[in-house]
Automatic annotation (TrEMBL):
Protein species of origin: Dictyobacter formicarum
Superkingdom of the source species: Bacteria
Protein name in UniProt: Transcriptional regulator
Gene3D superfamilies named in the record: Winged helix-like DNA-binding domain superfamily/Winged helix DNA-binding domain
Domain HTH marR-type: 8-146
One protein family per Pfam: MarR
InterPro entries: ArsR-like_HTH, HTH_MarR-typ, MarR/SlyA-like, WH-like_DNA-bd_sf, WH_DNA-bd_sf
Length: 162
């Protein structure tokens, strides 16, 4: 008797289960990375956001993450204390600050971790998938990210309304 999914509903159920396992593995991987850097997972993910959108204000980070401004202050304090980010005052309005990643500090710690991960993934994908299949996987990941973002926004809006 085959354990492979046969129909559409079976495939959707198998995708849901595999997605949960992937999500759990991803969370644990990021927890291990954060721990190796002396951070928590929230700090690490905020650092990713700060790196991606260099020059954002604490208020923008709070809005984007759904964290309170007080929690964001704590995140920034920890990231700054560990040397991964820095506050910069606005040259015109000194009351305003923006948060910037410190790429030299980050790359020295994160590069070895992500280089290993990227090589392992490339090895796995190069032996298992054709270019066409990899394009399909890329489309799946992009679409899944859009769904996750939309569902995150929906949850945050529901919370604000209650």
């Amino acid at each position: 008797m085959s354990t492979e999914p046969s129909g559409r509903n079976d495939l959707l159920a198998a995708l849901e289960q595999a997605g949960r396992q992937y999500s759990e593995s991803s969370v644990l991987f990021h927890h291990a990375i954060a721990d190796s850097l002396g951070l928590n997972v929230t700090d690490l993910k905020c650092l990713d956001i700060i790196r991606e959108k260099d020059g954002m204000t604490p208020g923008q980070l709070a809005k984007l993450t759904g964290l309170t401004t007080g929690a964001v202050t704590g995140v920034i304090d920890r990231l700054e204390g560990a040397g991964y980010a820095q506050r910069k005052r606005d040259s015109i309005d000194r009351r305003k600050i923006s948060i910037h990643a410190r790429p030299e500090q980050i790359s020295s710690k994160l590069a070895p971790i992500f280089t290993s991960f990227q090589q392992a993934m490339a090895n796995e994908f190069n032996t298992a998938y054709s270019n066409r299949e990899m394009a399909l996987i890329l489309d799946f990941v992009k679409r899944s990210s859009h769904v996750l973002q939309a569902e995150t926004n929906k949850i945050q809006q529901q919370k604000q309304q209650s």
